[in-house]
Design brief:
Shape: elongated
CATH class: Mainly Beta
Strand order of the largest sheet: 1-10-3-8
Radius of gyration: 19 Å
Helix content: 10-25%
Number of strands: 10
Largest sheet: 4 strands, antiparallel
Number of helices: 1
Order of helices and strands: EEEEEEEEEEH
CATH architecture: Sandwich
Strand content: over 45%
CATH topology: Jelly Rolls
Length: 100
């Protein structure tokens, strides 16, 4: 499977935004992240779960609901499937150039 790799360099306090529903795999290569699950209702009260710390090297969970914030300078490597549409556009543009 064709994949492309992106590297996100985060400063302390900066949030990591991953595409929701994306099939990418994110790996924390250096630094430390804080994962905060969303608050929930329990018996008419708001319950805020404790945040989890993630130290490098580790796979970042693919939970769309969690907010991810860097505790210190960090690098996250994201491998995602290459866009098939981009390859098709390039192929079509090459055909149009040949046709001229």
């Amino acid at each position: 499977m064709n994949t492309q790799t992106r590297i996100h360099r985060l400063e302390a306090g900066q949030a990591l935004q991953l595409e929701p529903g994306d099939r990418s795999v994110a790996v924390l290569s250096e630094g430390e992240l804080l994962l905060q699950p969303p608050a929930q209702w329990l018996a008419g009260m708001v319950v805020v779960p404790a945040p989890a710390r993630l130290h490098a090297p580790a796979v970042v969970p693919a939970d769309d609901a969690c907010s991810i914030v860097a505790v210190r300078a960090s690098s996250v490597v994201v491998r995602q499937p290459a866009a098939a549409a981009a390859g098709a556009r390039t192929w079509l543009a090459g055909l149009l150039r040949l046709a001229r």
